[in-house]
Predict the 3D structure of the following.
Amino acid sequence: MEKTAKQITVALPADTAMEMFVIGATFSAATENYHRVTEYKTPEYFSSSGMKYFELNDKITGFENLKANWDSYNADPISSSAITIALEILDFLKREGTLTSGIEVNVFPMRDGGIQFEFEAENLSAELEINPNGDLTFILFNNHGDIILKQPIKIYELSELSSYLEETVYA
Amino acid sequence: MPNYIITAEDFLYRRFPIMDEPRFQVFFEIKDGKKVPTSAAFKTKPGEDGLSVDIKALTTPEISVIDAANYGLAEIPASSPLGLGYPCTHNPQPGNNAHALIVGDTNPIAKKLKKAITNVITF
């Protein structure tokens, strides 16, 4: 949200504080009976990062509703371990700014009960597989879909994921 | 008994879910306004002998899709797995004479199979 709104003055009782997230402004009236808008705030769910985060978060948590044979080819239900790890990874990606870095991030259920993240950009095609036990494998592809790197990653070493993505995007 | 020899001239159908449940798109992404399966649709599970497909020449899209409200079909040329060294064998099942297998663990070629999609059929 752009900070282009005019400064406005409102009359409020002293010691009144109110937040108006919808219009993105914070009002404060601590010592005077009127006060200027002092801070603009964009609620998290209005930012592009927040929108993407909540979209993917909803999608991941929704995977628990998939029943056996959800793909008509005998796919397994998505494991709770995979869902838990996927949500941790999503939080990590948000903290790292990956969701707004120009990399298209998506997430899909896997037939074996795992979950896969997909990362696509102009010169990046990668997947992060979470198997039903929660183990992670990062896979990097060339433009033809050939695997050029396949690397296990520990959940406590997710910085490696950022490194792989950044190295590829900025190569 | 298997009696159809799959050649590079054949095309194969792979079914994929298109329902927007549980909340958002599940197993597909939108490309040029069409629902296209992700590479996850082409990955075998551990213990599977191969990836199930239908031979286009032995069926119709209407039969192969089974449930048109919830599934679509991705069409790939048999030349793609064959060219990558993956045999494709006729594997008829009760009620589905068109069934075939892309034999082996298809995880390493799933991305290439997705890229090989020549047509997506939804009803």
